[in-house]
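Predict the 3D structure for this chain.
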Amino acid sequence: MVCAVRTNAFRRYFFLNLYMGMSFVASVGRFQVLKHWGNPSLEYAYFYFYSDALLTIGLYFALLNLYSLVFDEMKVERYLRIGAVLLLGGTAWFSYAVINQSSHRILSHFAFELSQNLYFVGLVLTYVLWGAILKLRETRTRLIQLVLALGAYFSAFAADYALRNLYPNYQAVWQYLTPALGCILPAAWMISFFWVNEEARLAPSRLAAVPR
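Done. Predicted structure below.
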C-alpha cells in the first residue's frame, strides 16, 4: 500500500490495496485473538477461518480490478460486476451445499470450504485473464506482473489446500508453509509498484511464440 501511494497508483488499483489493508487488519486481529485465547481455542479457529474467507473474497475483487483494467477499452465493467456477483454467490452456495451434506456442520468448515473453492475459482479466472492478455496483446508491464503474481499466489494456495486435504496429519508442515506462501503476493506487488513504472511496456505475446 505504501509503494502504491508513493507511485500514485492507489486509486487505479484500489481493490488490490484494499485487500492489502484487509490483510494487515486481519493479521493484527489474529495476533490479538491468539494472544488472549491461544492456538487450540475455538475462538481463534473461528476468527482465523472467517477472516481467511473475507480475505479470499477481497482477493477475488482484486482480481476483478485487474480484469476491469485489461478490458477497460471494451466498456464491459457492468457485465464483469454482474458475472462476478453471480460467480461469488454460486461458489458460496456450492460450499454450503457440500458442508450441509456432511456430518460436521460447523460454521468454520463452511468458511474453510468457501476459501478453498474461491482459491480454485480465482486460479481459473487468473489463467483466463492471462490468456486474454496474450490475445489482446496487452503491453503494460506493471499490469502484467500484477496478474502473474496473482496467478502464482492462487496456484500456491490451491496446491496448499489440496495437499492439506490429502495429508491432514502433517499439520506441523502446514503451520510454517502456509505463512511462507502468504509472503508471495505482497512481495511481488511491492516490486511491481515500486520498481516498475506505469508507463513501462513489453510484449507478452513473445512468450507464447514457438520458434520454427
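The chain has a mean pLDDT of 81.
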